[in-house]
Amino acid sequence: MAGYVELYNLTKIYDPEVSKVAVVRGFNLDMAEGEFISLIGHSGCGKSTVLTMVAGLNDISEGAVVVAKREIAGPGPDRGVVFQAPCLLPWMTAFDNVKLGVERVFPHASKKERADIVTYYLSLVGLGSALNKYPKELSEGMKQRVGIARAFALAPKMLLLDEPFGKLDSLTRMELQDVLLSLLDKDPKTTLMVTHDVDEALLLSDRIVMMTNGPEARVGETLAVPFERPRARASVLEHDAYYDLRGRMIQFLEDQDKRRHKPKEPETSPDSLAVPASA
């Protein structure tokens, strides 16, 4: 049965005239509506390449991405994207940064309706008292809250997160993870997230897709995460399966690391296999 989001045979070759080697080749994944999946793997394995192809920001060499029965052909408001850096326009307030996208996605809504959408999502991420602050007046964590609010305010069918908390300190990172869990409880989204953090993946995900090393990276192993929703950090850490799942992820990454650093065996020519003639 086809999923709500289908990634079929995704392949990316950045310069096919120079090399046929693919960063990612034959990547297949089906996602159910409302499912949260994390991509994890070593740096350079193509996690962000997969995510940007799904976002429509990176051309697909082979394969296809289908979201809600429609094959994508570029970026669109049906996919909200949150990057490591939220890229806020510095001359606009937090309110105006979010409103910019809302005006484009809801052109027929009244001015008050659009303002209510912006205020609602900024309040949900804890910025109800900072609507009129400019990016220079916001901490890094607050800026990322604006980026998350901006993505949700567009009412996308799918949410794409590219290491959204990777540049934050550990305390702020935990706070933003909890904000995201709360938002998804109120407004469920089919979500694909790239992360290097095994604990973050376990806290947030329904399934974790572990990728093999690149080039020619693909799906290596998939873990189902059994923790119930709504999800609380304490109950996740206390779950009987937590450390087993964590250990399996670390073992997979260690195995990939060994393969990456394994020395190549010297090539053997037919002549070297010949039996020397007796004297």
- Radius of gyration from the CA trace? 22 Å
In CATH, the homologous superfamily of the largest domain goes by the name P-loop containing nucleotide triphosphate hydrolases
Tally of structural domains: 2
Number of helices: 8
Mean pLDDT value: 90
CATH class of the largest domain: Alpha Beta
Classify the secondary structure makeup into a structural class.
Answer: alpha/beta
Distance between the termini: 70 Å
Brief characterization of the structure:
By secondary structure, this protein is an alpha/beta fold. Helix content is 35%, strand content 19%.
Task: Lay out the secondary structure.
Elements: E1 5-12, E2 24-31, E3 36-40, H1 47-55, E4 62-67, E5 70-71, E6 79-82, H2 94-105, H3 111-124, H4 140-153, E7 158-162, H5 170-186, E8 190-194, H6 198-204, E9 207-211, E10 219-224, H7 233-238, H8 242-261
Parallel strand pairs: 3-8, 3-9, 6-7, 7-8
Antiparallel strand pairs: 1-2, 1-4, 4-5, 9-10
Helix pairs in contact: 2-3, 2-4, 3-4, 4-5
Task: Describe the protein in words.
This protein has helices at 47-55, 94-105, 111-124, 140-153, 170-186, 198-204, 233-238, 242-261, and strands at residues 5-12, 24-31, 36-40, 62-67, 70-71, 79-82, 158-162, 190-194, 207-211, 219-224. It is of the alpha/beta class and 279 residues long. The protein has 2 domains: 1-73 and 163-179 and 190-225 and 232-259, Rossmann fold; 79-155, no CATH class. It has a 6-stranded mixed β-sheet, sandwiched between helices. Strands 2-1-4-5 form a 4-stranded antiparallel β-sheet, with helices on one face. Strand 7, helix 5 and strand 8 (190-194) form a beta-alpha-beta unit. The N and C termini lie far apart (70 Å). The model is unreliable at 274-279 (pLDDT under 50).
